[in-house]
Structures are given as structure tokens and as C-alpha cells.
Write a structure and sequence with these properties.
By secondary structure, the protein is mainly alpha-helical. Helix content is 76%, strand content 0%. The chain has one domain.
């Protein structure tokens, strides 16, 4: 979700000839992207140079753990697709329904378009599919908002609590940590479980991106929203397992490090998504991940290697997702657009 223009306007603009103002916005977006990536690259390069000896000592070789990590990174995407399909089916009319395989295929294609800044490619692919299948564009856009809200809650809340409890004791007193942990848990719980609050939040998002209030028929009950937020932890856990396997090829990973490592990866990924003008959070995720890993107790040189290696393996995972998408398309009945 990018820039100052509403998301629906961006989707509509993507299918028409860009105006002069839109071309300027696009140019500005590219400039901001280049500047942010350049800054992150310089900072990361400085860290890499300082720890270059440790990087060389890592002496990485292909491992079966790398293959398992790639499969984990790839498998998390269709699982998220199933959840998106469940949201769409819950909000749509009785006559419209998306099957599990089709939901996974549509979401996989959307995921592969994440490298387009601002997520416009991801959402546009779902909108085009929705229009072919009789789903209103507004409904598809709202499901896109919902899935991003639930994904961010599932990524940030548990991860923040875990990392505060792991890293915090070395920085602040236990009583302060308890207060921080309670606040981190209670704020999103109140936001989701109090209907007036949650409806207000979603209405603000809807007005921001759709230039219209959230239609009543598209408002999820707070209990359902809490359930979806919890369900989106599943793909985060799958990604976390992949990251643990990745880290295990660089350094010794004890069972006590499993949860903090998974939390660090989820939090870094969430922050990377929030930096909307950088395609797929490239560089930002690695920088955040490096800080988290050092805070957990991993040597800076090894943290650099793990951060870069995880990006490489997840990128290879995208190729596997493309294969998954092809297999899902072939498995669908003829004439079923995906």
C-alpha cells in the first residue's frame, strides 16, 4: 500500500495511461526506493566489511538444510493463500466462493508480484482475478487490507514479546519488561475485541485506501478477526522453521535459540513489508534481522552471513512458489481463471 493516493485509485490507474502527475509520483517513488536501498546497502556494507574475516571463516557449502529451508519458505505462501481464501469466502455473497486450490494459486501469483513497489502488483493480480470470477473490486481490496492487518499482528505482537523477554533483561529491569509485554499484548487485543474500536480502525484504513467507509457487510466480527490473527501465526511459524534451518548452517543453534530466531525473522519481515517503497523490503529486512540476531547473542560476522543467506534462500523459494503456482493451475478445472 503505497504513496498518498488511495489503493483503489492506484489499481484503476494501473490499467490506464498514466497522467503527468502519476508519472511524477512514479519517478519520485523510484528515487525514494533508490535512496533507501542505497543507504541500507552502505550501512550493511560497512557492517560486512567490519566482519569480513568472520564471513570468510563461515566457509559455507550447500547443505540439505538449505533445501529444507527453501521448502519451508515456499510452503508458507500457499498456507497464507488458504487463509486469504477463508477471509474472502466469509465476506462474499453466498453465490461467490473460492476453492482452496484456487485461493492458493491466486495468492501465490500475488506473492510473486511482491517485487513491484507499493504492493500494487500483488493487489492488482487479485483484483483482475476477482473481476473474472464475479467478486467486487472493493471486496478484493478489503480482503487485501484484512490479510495485511492480520499478518502484521501475527508477525509483530508475538515476536516483539519474545524478543523483549530475550533481549530486554540485559537492558532494563524485569518490572519494566512485564509492563512492556502486557502493553504489547493488550493494545492489539483491545483493538480487535472491542467492536467499536476495530470498526473504527478498519474504517480509517478503508477511507485511506478506498476513499469510502468500510461497508457494514464487509466488517468481520471481532472474534473472527482474533481467530484470523491467530491463524496467521501458522505461516510465520513455518517461515521461522526455515530460518532456523538456515541459521543452523552458519552457527550452532541450540533449542533455546529456536523461538527467538523465528521471532527475529518474523519481525524483520514485517518491518520490511511496512517499508512499502522498497520492493519486497530488500535490504531493510536484512538490516533489522542483523540487529535482532546480534541482540540474541549471535556474533556480528555470523549475523551478517545468516541475514544474507536467508534472503538468498527465500529468493530461491520464490522460484519454488512459481512451480507450485504452475502445478496448482494445472490441477484446476479447465476454464477456471487463477
Amino acid at each position: 500500500m503505497s504513496g498518498d493516493a488511495p489503493l483503489e485509485t492506484e489499481v484503476a490507474a494501473a490499467t490506464t495511461k498514466p497522467t503527468k502527475k502519476q508519472r511524477r509520483r512514479k519517478l519520485l517513488s523510484r528515487i525514494v526506493t533508490i535512496v533507501v536501498v542505497a543507504i541500507v546497502a552502505v550501512l550493511f556494507a560497512r557492517s560486512l566489511s567490519k566482519n569480513w574475516t568472520a564471513v570468510q571463516e563461515a566457509n559455507l557449502h550447500p547443505s540439505w538444510l538449505h533445501l529444507l529451508a527453501i521448502l519451508c519458505f515456499a510452503f508458507a505462501v500457499p498456507v497464507s493463500g488458504l487463509l486469504w481464501g477463508m477471509i474472502l469466502n466469509r465476506l462474499s455473497d453466498e453465490g461467490s466462493h473460492v476453492g482452496a486450490r484456487q485461493a492458493m494459486a491466486v495468492h501465490s501469483l500475488s506473492w510473486l508480484l511482491k517485487y513491484v513497489p507499493g504492493q500494487i502488483g500483488s493487489v492488482l493480480s487479485k483484483v483482475v482475478w476477482g473481476q473474472k470470477n464475479g467478486f467486487p473490486r472493493t471486496l478484493i481490496l478489503i480482503t487485501f487490507i484484512y490479510e495485511n492487518v492480520f499478518l502484521q499482528i501475527a508477525s509483530i505482537v508475538p515476536s516483539a514479546i519474545i524478543l523483549v523477554l530475550v533481549v530486554g533483561p540485559t537492558l532494563v529491569e524485569g518490572n519494566v519488561l512485564t509492563v512492556v509485554a502486557v502493553v504489547v499484548v493488550m493494545v492489539p487485543l483491545v483493538a480487535i475485541l472491542v467492536p467499536q474500536v476495530f470498526h473504527r480502525i478498519m474504517s480509517i484504513a478503508s477511507k485511506r485506501f478506498l476513499k469510502a467507509p468500510l461497508p457494514e457487510q464487509y466488517f468481520l466480527h471481532p472474534v473472527a478477526s482474533l481467530g484470523f490473527s491467530a491463524a496467521y501465526v501458522t505461516p510465520r511459524v513455518i517461515n521461522g522453521v526455515g530460518f532456523i534451518l538456515c541459521a543452523a548452517t552458519v552457527t550452532t543453534v541450540t533449542p533455546g535459540m529456536w523461538v527467538p530466531l523465528a521471532a527475529a525473522y518474523a519481525l524483520a519481515g514485517a518491518i520490511g513489508i511496512l517499508v512499502i517503497f522498497v520492493p519486497s523490503g530488500i535490504g531493510v529486512r536484512e538490516a533489522v534481522l542483523f540487529v535482532c540476531l546480534v541482540g540474541i547473542g549471535i556474533a556480528p560476522g555470523q549475523a551478517v552471513v545468516i541475514s544474507v543467506l536467508s534472503r538468498l534462500l527465500s529468493t530461491v523459494g520464490d522460484a519454488v512458489i512459481a512451480l507450485q503456482y504452475g502445478a496448482l493451475r494445472l490441477s484446476l478445472p479447465k476454464g477456471s481463471p487463477a
